[in-house]
Amino acid sequence: MNMLSIILPAKNEAAALAELLPRLCAEQPSAQIIVVDDGSIDDTRAICEKHGVRCLSSPYSMGNGAAIKRGARAAKGDVLVFMDADGQHHPADVARLLEKLEQGYDMAVGARDWGSQAGVGRGVANTFYNWLATRMTGHDIADLTSGFRAVRADRFREFLYLLPNGFSYPTTSTMAFFRSAYPVAYVPIKAAQRVGKSHIKPLRDGLRFLLIIFKIATLYSPLKLFVPASGVFFLLGCANYTWTFIREGRLTNMSTLMWSAAVIIFLIGLVSEQITSLTYRRHD
Question: What SS3 class is residue 100?
């Protein structure tokens, strides 16, 4: 590995950066460290200047994923490490992630244990995401939403156009790597309590997390989502037909509607599968 770049997306994380940057510089003195200031209104830029760290500033907030993309484009390293700027991730764990890349993996992800989850609700949600993604991909996914990861720069940049500007870049990048047969490893880590308040709002982001569930399926293999849904509507149509035939001796419009829905959902799944194949074709 010729050069390492460490990218920290930050939005009003000056207090955490004041403690994190000196430790990170001490652990990785030869690394290029980039803080991507996502429209902060605190002393983020001053803290970076004090510690000799490059700061990419945005005039307004574009989102966590947008900060990741800006940092990845600006980084010069052959290997990129992404970590949160809120003090949750330990600089000493960077070396553990890099060891996995040296063993031949293209991505190494820091997998948090239950005690490192930010509350019971977040822990339950992340456990469900991990289970769903594991079922979809056939690979054991220990932490789908972890923002602490090391990747080979050329591999990661292949998927920049897929990454959203919001908070789900870890999900998207993980599924993209699995879909393109790039090996992914998980390294158990302990995450500390973040400094300051989280930018995630449970009520506001509830719909976003629900959409992530569907995005997991459509990113990897849409038919694994659409075929079961189509089957449910087909069986409901059969059940309704059986019930109405026994009671009234006829076929009702509801049964026909459910069978039609089953066919439409299945065809949408086929089209989605073709679109997914075209999306990844140049990387397969």
Answer: helix
Three-class secondary structure of residue 243 per DSSP: helix
Query: Is residue 33 a contact partner of residue 6, using CB atoms and an 8 Å limit?
Result: yes
The pTM of this model reads 0.80
Residue 130 corresponds to which amino acid? N
- Type and span of the H or E element at 64: helix 64-74
What pLDDT score was predicted for residue 234? Answer: 96
Say whether pLDDT at 187 is over 70: yes
pLDDT digits (tens, 9 = 90+) for 36-49: 999 999 999 999 99
Alpha-helical runs (H) found in 120-222: 120-137, 153-157, 169-179, 202-220
Residue 192 φ/ψ, nearest 5 degrees: -85, 170
Torsion of CA 212, 218, 219, 223, to 10 degrees: 140
Beta bridge partners of 154: none
